[in-house]
Amino acid sequence: MPLEYLGAPPVASDRQARPFSPAVRAGDFIYVSGQVPANADGEIVVGGIEAQTRQVMENLKKVLALAGATLDDVCKSTVWLHDARDFGAFNRIYMSYFGENKPARSTTEARLMVDAKVEIDVVAYKPK
After folding, report:
1. Other beta carbons less than 10 A from residue 86's beta carbon
2. How many CB atoms lie within 10 A of CB 106?
3. Whole-number Å distance between alpha carbons of 26 and 39
4. Of 7, 21, 107, 120, which one has the greatest count of Cβ atoms within 10 A?
5. Strands 118-125, 74-81: parallel, antiparallel or unpaired by DSSP?
């Protein structure tokens, strides 16, 4: 089964398309590229970790929808926090987006490529 590339490459505030796909379907798995707290104009949303986490989660929902999937289909997430001290506030928002079945997760502190406090990528399982 061939890979299916989903969505147009995102455009950031400099109006340049980024060199990656928002998501790639490989069989029944959907690999979603790391999402940052960018709004529809490619600008990083203002506010603290809570506002930025909400934006990232909404961005993840939009990309998953390209494959007919939802956050309920996510089996693994990887989270990068700019500041580990934001972990508790991040977790409160993150947990509100998942129901009873939480995905496996890795979380680390890292310097991010853009002026963001959080980035998340996910893998979802959604048979066609």
Report:
1. 18
2. 9
3. 27
4. 120
5. antiparallel
SS3 84: helix
**Helix ranges, 26-80 (H):** 49-65
For residue 116, give the DSSP letter: -
d(CA 89, CA 73): 24
State the residue for tokens 């956050």: 71
Place of tokens 């990887």: 78
- Full-model pTM: 0.94
Domains delineated in the chain: 3-125 (3.30.1330.40)
In the block, residue with structure tokens 């979802």: 124
- Both structure tokens of 50: 């809570």
Give the tens place of pLDDT for each residue, 14-69: 777 888 899 999 999 999 999 999 998 888 999 899 999 999 999 999 999 999 99
- Rounded Cα–Cα distance for residues 28 and 5 (Å): 13
